[in-house]
Design goal:
12 helices, 8-stranded mixed β-sheet, 5-stranded antiparallel β-sheet, disordered N terminus
Length: 750
Amino acid sequence: MLKMIEKFLLIFLVAFLSAAGYSQVENKKITLEDVFKKRTFSSKGVYGMQPLKDGRYFSQVKNDSLNVYDYATGDYVSTIVTSAELIPEGDTTPVPISSYELSENEARILFTADEEAIYRHSTKAYYYIYDIETRKLIPLSSGEKQRLATFSPDGNKVAFVRDNNIFIRDLGSGIWDPGTSGGQGDDTNRDPVFTAEMQITTDGLFNEIINGATDWVYEEEFGFTKAFFWSPDSKRIAYYRFDEKRVKEYKLEYYGDIYPEVYTYKYPKAGEDNSLIEVKIYHIETGETVPVDLGNETDIYIPRIKWTKNPKSLALYRMNRYQNKLELILADAESGKSTVILTENNAWYIDITDDWTFLKDGKSVLLTSEKNGYNHIYLYDLNGSLIRQITSGMWEVTTLYGVDEEKGLVYFQSDQLSPLNREVNVVGLDGKGIQTLSGIDGYSRAQFNADYSFYVNNWSDINTPPVITLNKADGREVRVLQANETLKERMKEYDFSVVDFFTFKTDDGMELNGWMLKPPDFDPGKKYPVLFTIYGGPGSQTVTNRWGSASSWNQLMAQHGIIVVSVDNRGTGARGQEFKKCTYLELGKYETSDQIEAAKYLGSLPFIDKDRVGMWGWSFGGYLTLSCLTKGADYFSMGVAVAPVTNWKYYDNIYTERFMRTPIENMKGYEDNSPVNHAKKLKGKVLMIHGMADDNVHAQNTYDMITALVAADKQFELQVYPNSNHGIYSGKNTTWHNYTRMTEFILKNL
């Protein structure tokens, strides 16, 4: 009996210890707090490494000082400035050291304070100038906040925008103001004077005239806000002038006081008038302003301007309203006369990038084009004659990093191995000797130093957080800057599932790429609900082999027993222009049908519950969600649409007309592909979410969808956020509240 008791106790003890041991290694469960409040799964990066002009060193903010470090060794070299030296006169609080711009001669630094957003990409702030030699800090200007402050190439002046006008601050002996009014030559009675600050335009007026900054639609769709540019010799400024008086207005209401504040701004919807645009060149020494000849057609776009290496020659891209004809123009700075040197036509449309570089020889330009079906690099002379095509093949150059002209080498990013991946590459200016430096089987992006002797490489794959390294120009790794080892261990601790890629073919034979995230305790004998996470807009990708493609929120969904997938439909990028541009005039048609095909394919798999398939997306993804829930009502049982377009007539003209032309020209394309016109087809559960102060995709879209759903007697759920913009991050606690709302809705209805 005693032996039996001892044996029982031994078995019990072993079982107890085993259970205790198991509980110690049991994986933690992901919570919303982990994802959105604690940021438990945020990866670490390497930020603020600003290359210095000698190529040997870089600057970086560490704690409370801006320091210089050696690229080769990573060693500290010197301190440029500390926070203690950045206290404005009469103040006790230092100017933030985190945001700074060095002058080209590295003698002065611009810092910003009290920065505030205007729209999604534009800001205004108080600027301060720090002189490294004298160790003095001065405000750029007195009065209201400034915008877009930029050093002249010689570092002796700063140009900036305030109240829609351009100003120049001289940091030396002063600017010779020749007695003109804003440099327009219309006031000859004033005496010439030297001044520290000079206003070079005077007609700027909110919602009427903008000098030196872009209007709303240029900022959003052409991706830049600074619309003035110093000549290489610091003697001229080329600038845009937008006359937006004829552009129709949109009103946003902001709540919180007894009466809402109404903000009115210019927003040109599809088919409506744009700003009238001019490009002018201001000559600092004479005060003369020279208009650039942009041609007789006024309904055009000037999506980019840039000085060539010749300070008297300005380059411009001119594009027609259809955006299928692009001209490269050279303008003479003295006369304003212009010459078209290169013209590209496209059957669909032309995407605008910053991938154009004028070489130091003053005779040639390197640029990218899709004219042969895939985006590649070309070298032209400045008469418009093709010297050679630098890259070629059934793959895309995704970023042109730059040129080492001394060695005759061009550095770029591409997707040669797969549209899922990105590699860092080098090729000779003669088009020979292409080599991959970084990024095989994953996603790499590079930041090169000034002389292209080093680059910082950021690599990841869909299951591996970023590994950031310093590499020599030939690709050899010098040292690891950040490996995110702590995050890798945390992923194991929280039982992250592995994300797998898959492909399938649509009924018409088109192969599409996707990724799939299964629950960590996946059982192939069970059936699981599916949640699509999508964007799907033109040229975009959600299916890439990079960290962040499947987020920690997706992992949380998987831990709740949901299979999460994403599929890149036709119209997305990195697969050539025919795949991307086949959606022309029918924006949303193929995108929707491809997602429906994906739902049908997944529903055929033995472990998928085809009656429990949901989708969620934001912006274009919200649009696509509503389109799938209506046109694909038999295949999608629920959806969450955040900030969706519901009628293409309501979105801005540069974006919408690029893919659809105007509503008058393509009424059927607009009507057939706007979810508001298919509301009666809805069968599943739907939650719509919108920021009521969304200046990009107006809440009008959601409100009209509500009207259509009510008319069709369809029930829905709605969440609105007063005073919140397109990202729903403006306002207290909005991000947390929004994702809590979405999570609860999905878990309840899927």
